[in-house]
Specification:
single chain, alpha+beta, three-stranded antiparallel beta sheet
Length: about 130
């Protein structure tokens, strides 16, 4: 399985359509087998979308993305997990554990591991399986 994460520095990029870099991670089971970072700065939106499907990406984990892109990628067989924010490495770790869902915000490590919230439409938040905030 190949996972793509648009990045800005070390974090998930806030917008897919303007991300400077794309981190592609190839998995075997739940272990990282291969990874690469690609520059996306010179690509327009259509080229970015084509780049994902031509690289054989199965899932895109990203921040903001419009419905046109989600629909286009869905037609190409790419599942999109969107509205995710935080350090890219922590987001990938959550995905590998099966805990990542759309709307997650990862703030960093605390005593008991990752400190993540799931954003809700009403503006409230809940901790990732660890009670109420």
């Amino acid at each position: 399985m190949k996972i793509a994460i648009p990045i800005f520095g070390t974090r998930v990029s806030p917008r897919f359509d303007v991300c400077p870099e794309l981190w592609i991670v190839e998995l075997r089971g739940r272990k990282v087998e291969k990874e690469e970072k690609l520059s996306m700065e010179s690509l327009n939106l259509q080229q970015r979308l084509d780049h994902l499907s031509s690289r054989g990406v199965d899932k895109l984990i990203c921040g903001g993305i419009d419905h046109f892109c989600i629909d286009h990628l869905g037609e190409k067989g790419v599942e999109v997990i969107h509205n995710v924010a935080g350090e890219a490495g922590e987001v990938l770790a959550l995905f590998l554990k099966g805990h990542l869902r759309p709307g997650f915000y990862c703030e960093g490590k605390r005593r008991r591991g990752l400190y993540c919230w799931r954003r809700r439409a009403q503006g409230r938040r809940t901790m990732n399986g660890r009670g109420k905030v």
